[in-house]
Amino acid sequence: MQRNHRILALLLFGLALFPQGSSCAAVNAHVDVILWFDTEDYLLPADDDACKRVAQMLTERHIRATFKVVGEKARVLERRGRKDVITALKKHDIAFHANFHSVHPTPSEYLAECGLLDGMEEFARREGPGAADVRRIFSVPTLGCYGQPGSSWAPQAIVALKSIGVAPHGVPCYVDEGDHVGLGEQPFWYAGALNVYHMGQNCTRMELHDPAAVEPAKQKVAAIAERLQKEPRSGLISIYYHPCEWVHQEFWDGVNFRRGANPPREQWKAPPQLPAAETEAAFLRFGEYIDYIRSIPGARFVTAGDLPTIYPDPLRSQGASAKDVAELALRLLSGEAKGVNFQVIADRSYSAADQFELLTTALAKLIAGEKLPFPLISKGLLGPDSPPPAACDLSRIDWPAFRDTVRDLASFIETERRVPARVFIGADAVPPADFLKALAAAYDFHRKSGRLPLEQGVELGKHLKLLPARQVAEDTPGLFGGWIIHREGFRAPKILEQARLQTWTLKPAVRVN
Questions:
Q1: Residue 10: per-residue pLDDT
Q2: What angle do CA 448, 453, 459 make, to 5 degrees?
Q3: Given the DSSP bridges, would you call strands 465-466 and 339-340 parallel, antiparallel or unpaired?
Q4: Bridge partners for 353 per DSSP
Q5: Rounded distance between C-alpha atoms, residue 195 and residue 175, angstroms
Q6: Which whole number is the average pLDDT over 84-101?
Q7: 96 in helix, strand or coil?
Q8: Distance separating alpha carbons of residues 436 and 18, to the nearest angstrom
């Protein structure tokens, strides 16, 4: 009888783990859930208590979340003596969410007319002090990630993350949500950082103040988890909130900085607060929602600080094998290749910039008479700082000109750490995408013949497109201007131009099992 009771208990436990409609096969893979909070309201004191309560609720459930803290929010907590709030948040992953958030000019506003290099410097100048204060006040050596205020996105901010964090790695991740750039609604590498962005159908949340929203939100997150668990390497679910959502009637920044308004600090107003009963109900709904996610078989909570371990880039540490470099050259020379694109070979992901670096490095060593030291390490390049020139009339390069250009390129990428905007062959400037095909042709010739093409010269690509640039959004009035803080219809076409140039660095983030 006792044995039968044990069997029945195990069957009931199994039904709890595998609800109707699920399958045992589906839970063999797990799915990660990143829960992040834009911790930004430094005007409404009740937000301090909301931050503390959210953090404590999660700690009690043994869940670590990512709290992206605005620099001024951290300073206000310090001035108010809220060590209790700081202590509660420190049990989680501390990240960065801009220095003053919505005070004009926002990042997209001050970067709207910048190029790559001056934009990086301006972002670091304006936002770096806030990142330093968040690290100091929370006593954390590094910040888990950065994410922009509202829709105020720019690629220069991602590039500059290495300079606002602790050397040598800086802030390793970019975590937020928006439509500016993305790749398959899963994490990707872009502009030197691991990005969780434009997650599309894999980004979800429950409306805190709608009693009817709880059950549909549960069903939605369960459906996402089930779908992702059937994919080869599972995936990531992104869920975000703001602690101020529990306590305010209107976002703090909309009260003060709406559509370009920028009153002096002495005129800033705190937003109206919700009744205590509504705040309490919202916390209860959130607890129910989080407990449900915890119960999903195979689901686990991760933080931004965990992401570099889950999605490592072995190319930076272990390098590329001779087989992989040969395969990259072949793919670039393929008749199907209508442009240059990122490539994935086994557990390695290669951006167009990675391919440019590896082939330039390999050919420079061969030209110098050196043996290639496989695996070849790719340190990583940024994209160009300006658009390429129009394609020239050259179709084939004689060997001496090609040799000298490769030597010059190797020097350039070692010094500047980016793909050049133009490659000079004597007096002629050619697009780097076209020259990348020439690099592939020369490398493939050597691989097959064991010698360099001294007599034949090298064929140059012709009008090759940078295919990953298609992953950048079109310039529409709502892309930046949809945020209530920007002027209505605010547009930043130069930011999107820079974004497309940086898609030389775009590639999938390959998840390790």
A1: 35
A2: 95
A3: parallel
A4: none
A5: 6
A6: 98
A7: strand
A8: 51
Average pLDDT, the chain: 93
Burial, 83: exposed, middle or buried (Cβ in 10 Å; 0-12, 13-18, 19+)?
exposed
> Maximum Cα–Cα distance for the chain, whole Å?
91
Structure tokens of 160? 């500059």
DSSP codes, 132-186: HHHHHHHT-SS-S-B--STT---HHHHHTHHHHSSTTT---EEE---SSB-STTS
177: its two tokens: 């949500």
Between strands 343-345 and 299-302, the pairing is unpaired
Q: Are 195 and 505 in contact (CB under 8 A)?
A: no
Position 2 scores a pLDDT of 39
Tens digits of per-residue pLDDT, 364-408?
999 999 999 999 999 999 999 999 998 788 899 999 999 999 999
pLDDT tens across 217-238, in order? Answer: 999 999 999 999 998 777 999 9
The DSSP element (H or E) to which 458 belongs, if any, is: strand 458-459
**Bridge partner list, 194:** 173, 189
The whole-number pLDDT of residue 170 equals 86
Q: Which helix (H) or strand (E) holds 299?
A: strand 299-302
Beta-strand (E) ranges in 62-146? 66-69, 93-96
* Residue 66 tokens, joined: 């990512």
Q: Looking at residue 167, what is its pLDDT?
A: 58
Among 150, 64, 159, CA closest to 107: 150
Q: Is the Cβ–Cβ distance between 427 and 464 less than 8 Å?
A: no
